[in-house]
Design a protein that fits this description.
With 172 residues, this protein is of the alpha+beta class. It has four helices and four strands.
Length: 172
Amino acid sequence: MTHKLLTLTAVISLFLSGCGQTAPDLNGSNNNISDTNAISGDTVSIDESAYGNESEGNYNSSTDGFRSVYFDFGDYAISSNMENNMNNNIKIAMAASSKIKIEGNCDEFGTDEYNYALGLKRAKAVKDSLVSQGLSAGKTVMVSLGESSPVCTEPNDSCYDRNRRVDIRLVK
């Protein structure tokens, strides 16, 4: 009995010590994303076609005319420099006859749980922005892919920046 209780206590302690971890603090801010939600979805292939000039960082891995929305490290707020992408996305989403899939993605830093939660928060921020512009919430499906669908795998800041994104696709 004592052995089972000790084992159970150890397992619970290990489980709880893994919850609520934060990503490395590379820019001086500490965004603790410890609440994880049920996340589901299939892995999808990524279209690496770019819009604009790739040398200036104008990448796009969204499809169907949508543009990817990029985020700062550990952040899920849509920055003002993504306004053109969001304006483009609302026009396409409003004209679409099918649902749209909003996919949150992260770089490789942080635990799997942290990255799935952050990806979901990024997807929700984009969804909330689209809904605030008049898109029906019922026309959206959100999924977090965490760090599982990188579009770039080189170990440098430019590559990490490309993976901190939300992609949008039509559900076919």
